[in-house]
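By way of example, what follows is a protein record of this kind.
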Amino acid sequence: MASSIPTLPELDPLEPLLGISSDELAAQCRADLEASREAVAQFKRLPAAASFLDVVDEYDAIGHAVDRSAHLAHLFFQAHPDSVMRDVGAVAEQELSRFSTELSLDREVYDRLVALDLDAAPDPVSRRIVEHALRDYRRAGVDRDEATRRRITALREELVEIGQSFSRNIASDVRSITIPEGAAGLEGLPADFVAAHAPDADGAVTVTTNPTDYMPFAKYARNREHREALLRAYLTRGTPDNLEVLDRLLSRRHELATLLGYPHWAAYVTEDKMIKTAEKASSFVQRVTELSEERMRIEYAELLEEVQREVPDATEVRDWDRSYFLEKLRQRKTNFDTREARPYFAYAKVRDGVLDTAARLYGVEFVAADVTPWHPDVEVYDVLESGERIARFFLDMHPREDKFKHAAMFDLTTGLEGRRIAQACLVCNFPQPSAAGGDPGLLEPDQVTTYFHEFGHLMHHLLAGRQRWMSVSGIATEWDFVEVPSQLFEEWGRDPDVLARFATHWETGEPIPAELVARMNAAADYGKGLQVRVQMFYATLSLSYYDRDPASFDSTELMRDVRARVGPYPHEEGTFLQASFGHLDGYSAAYYTYMWSLVLAKDVFSRFEGKLMDPDVARRYRETILAPGGSKDAADLVADFLGRPFAFDAFEAWLSK
């Protein structure tokens, strides 16, 4: 149903931009840039006698106008159906990033902040904002000589364009294989997958590298040759272009880091994280690698034995075999077939279940909003608390041509208490129900987990968006903490009582049986040693690409070396996974974040175990971890909730059981 809440332009600066033309978007971005430049001038005009809070207020206001433009341009570049709008978004993103670089090197602004007496700060948050601003100015190079500052500016501008090229090449490069024998080549795949892949006039079937095709095909397709063909197509996306783009990305980031006085990019990018140094990040990755060693070896031996049941001469587990045979091994060990659970996970039911769970947990209400978004598939919801609209979110959940290929939460507006509601969008690639109703869009169990994961990000941004200052509003914590709320919320997507509320068979209406959930969770739990080791491979690779001079290695050779050391699966010659490893741009050296956050999430979850829907625990979690945004160090947020510093114990117990 449509929301009856009136539009409040002063609280919702985004809605007027959703349906504008590409020319209007470009003009609006320029206008917002000018407004922020005027805010910079206003900041510089502050009298010397201005109070500490006046200075912080005016400094924070610099980002208010460009906030919506920057986020919307990024979303439209990644997900808008109109190629012209995507191009405008890309250009706007470059212009907005240029302004951000200008501001980060503005010596006048820096000097005005340096002049503040930190001991005169009236509260810890305003002091924190100034301390972090001064840190970030120094990290940006504001105190370098003019020639160095010009080169820094050029590098930052070039890096935006390089990152856009890297993302664009992944999104646009959808590859496919042709199965000449038609439906016979789809043996093992679920009936709805087969029905959605009708043969062409010659009787052949086409399967693409889009996630909705690739994931089930890798898991269920019995034809080994077809699995290999699709795997090779999947792991060559973005090539050859992104191999050269990645080289430039690594080279320019290394040059920028050394200009700023760091030995390499990994040292620069970890400095303002919880982990603090590249050496500590590497030690953490090594620790988890060693913790997973014994379990990984046992599981790998069992998986290889499973492969050898069908491929007797196999001496190792190949990439095109691991998902398929791991599924068979899980079936053998847990008596669970993923296809048993899929009928209970129709897309609309899962969506409603995720929303209902979050609403009950956090004491809010979600109401469909009468808003026209950028594509007919996109749904819009207002978040109400005690009848008041406090936030809004968008769900762009199904695949489209040239759309972002993975799953992520995109900020749209950063909330400001009493002045602007927080808004965000989930962009995913889940199966889409057919308009005729014959195909409900059945999700895999791990896609259900992904839905909960991304919604955890969403609620973090929305519930943290009620601060006085934008600098600490929303997900403004250290970057290696941002996956904690998302990985934590995955736990609700595995709980039998939570699932029983929404997971019903799409044909019979029968609720998902508790014993099926138990088998499903047991199956998901099996292989965690292998799963953790794969994550450590990615974490090691991302650090290795950035903790040395990129002129000293070839990206494919280094990937081959890291895979041989960390594994658990061998490198497949002729494939180049680094060309479509999008996190090498966004997370750069910090892919360790996922496992670091999982350590924290398991510790936080220890307070919820046995009482997932307890309103008192949920309220404390919301008040101490989510709502504060970036007003405290992440370690302090966790300690406030747990009543002690975070520890590894819960993670190690999870990994060993």
Summary: Confidence is low (pLDDT under 50) at residues 1-9. Residues 15-104+106-140 form a domain with the Glutathione S-transferase Yfyf (Class Pi); Chain A, domain 2 fold (CATH 1.20.1050.40). The chain has 27 helices and seven strands. The first strand starts at residue 176 and ends at 179.
